[in-house]
């Protein structure tokens, strides 16, 4: 029986991340021996594919930019076709510490989908204003839908067990914010068990989270819309791969 | 209404219909996209030939100035066609997305198979 790590595929969506993706891949291999890494190059214009390949990762190159949702569904489909049990999504900009992967995987014993939550006690990640309200509203509503306490629903650091992989290979939303919010709703409505565990976030290699009031307000609006539509979608369109 | 405007109305409707039908014939337009244009063309032709039908239809739903019915129906048709196009676009985008994802996976698989074969050849020679 191969170890849990050997049955796990790390999926890293990467869009123009040539500066960081190589180091992140090497760090994953160092901290998680035996694991497979698939970098999904989301239509990058730079050398992301080459850098990731040289670091030893499998690389799937999308012909054009699809967004995180498209990149992740590619990863889930690859995992399903190549008989991986679990998929762990890690950002290619280095803000997720691969050292947390074993605890995410361990929690998969009790759940189908495990979120690495940024506000659950570890690390020093803080947001304010409309963005914070949006996150609170999302957390409250989604906690009710998922029947478990979730505090950080937009975290991209998450582990999926076999049932989630099978579902997401077919249906993973491509809409902005759909990949985090709507994916949770789809999983919850399909009866999958969702849990969260605390993880520490590191400073991003490049860029900072936006605190501009207009952008934050737009974020609140789009997040609410994504949430409302995800919750009110007819059950018949779930898991059919229709979208 | 002068005879010129009467003929002008009919000719316009006919031209619109002929263009749609000709495009259908040449496979430049699929039926499900053409249906609204056909309906609009036929309605315009009927109203063009028998203007009294417009007055009758307007009075039937209580529109005082019949031309307003023309505007209303025209805008309604344009709105429906636009909506249909947006929906078709969404479907096409979803299909393109699926294709792009499959292409990426197949390219990766091809690369893996080729490097495995190369390794095999080196092994045997």
Quick synopsis:
Chain A has 243 residues and is an alpha/beta fold. Chain A has helices spanning 21-31, 48-54, 68-81, 101-107, 129-146, 162-170, 178-189, 213-232; strands spanning 8-14, 36-41, 58-61, 86-89, 113-117, 158-160, 194-198.
Counting H and I runs of at least 4 residues, what is the number of helices of chain B?
Answer: 4
Radius of gyration of chain A, in angstroms, nearest whole number: 17 Å
Structural shape of chain B: elongated
Flag low-confidence runs of chain A.
Answer: none
Span from first to last CA of chain A?
Answer: 37 Å
Question: What is the number of E strands of chain A?
Answer: 7
The ordered string of helix (H) and strand (E) elements of chain B is: HHHH
- Count of helix runs of chain A: 8
Characterize the main sheet of chain A: 7 strands, mixed
The largest sheet of chain B is:
none
Descriptive labels:
heterodimer; A: about 240 residues; alpha/beta; Spore Coat Polysaccharide Biosynthesis Protein SpsA, Chain A; seven-stranded mixed sheet; 7 strands; about 40% helix; about 15% strand; globular; B: about 120 residues; mainly alpha; about 0% strand; elongated
């Amino acid at each position: 029986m191969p170890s849990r790590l050997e049955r796990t595929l790390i999926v890293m969506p990467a869009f123009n991340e040539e500066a960081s993706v190589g180091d992140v891949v090497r760090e994953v291999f160092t901290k998680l021996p035996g694991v497979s890494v698939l970098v999904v190059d989301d239509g990058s214009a730079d050398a992301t594919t080459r850098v990731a390949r040289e670091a030893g990762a499998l690389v799937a190159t999308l012909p054009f930019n699809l967004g995180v949702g498209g990149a992740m569904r590619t990863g889930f489909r690859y995992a399903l076709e190549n008989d991986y049990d679990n998929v762990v999504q890690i950002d290619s900009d280095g803000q997720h510490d691969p050292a947390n992967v074993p605890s995410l995987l361990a929690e998969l014993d009790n759940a189908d989908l495990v979120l690495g939550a940024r506000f659950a006690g570890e690390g020093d990640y803080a947001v304010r204003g409309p963005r914070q309200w949006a996150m609170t509203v999302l957390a409250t509503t989604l906690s009710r839908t998922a029947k478990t306490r979730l505090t950080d629903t937009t975290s991209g650091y998450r582990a999926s067990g076999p049932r989630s992989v099978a579902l997401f290979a077919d249906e993973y939303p491509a809409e902005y914010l759909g990949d985090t919010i709507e994916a949770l709703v789809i999983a919850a409505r399909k009866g999958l068990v969702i849990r969260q565990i605390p993880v520490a976030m590191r400073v991003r290699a490049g860029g900072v989270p936006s605190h501009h009031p207009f952008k934050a307000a737009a974020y609140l609006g789009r997040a609410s819309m994504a949430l409302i539509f995800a919750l009110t979608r007819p059950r018949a369109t779930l898991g059919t791969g229709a979208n | 209404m002068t005879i010129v405007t009467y003929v002008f109305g009919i000719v316009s409707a006919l031209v619109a219909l002929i263009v749609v039908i000709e495009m259908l014939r040449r496979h430049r337009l699929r039926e499900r996209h053409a249906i609204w244009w056909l309906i609009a063309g036929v309605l315009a032709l009927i109203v063009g030939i028998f203007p009294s039908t417009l007055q009758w239809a307007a009075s039937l739903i209580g529109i005082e100035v019949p031309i307003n019915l023309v505007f209303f129906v025209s805008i309604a048709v344009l709105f429906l066609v636009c909506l249909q196009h947006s929906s078709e676009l969404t479907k096409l985008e979803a299909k393109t997305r699926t294709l792009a994802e499959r292409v990426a996976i197949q390219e990766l698989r091809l690369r893996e198979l080729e490097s495995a074969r190369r390794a095999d050849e080196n092994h045997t020679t």
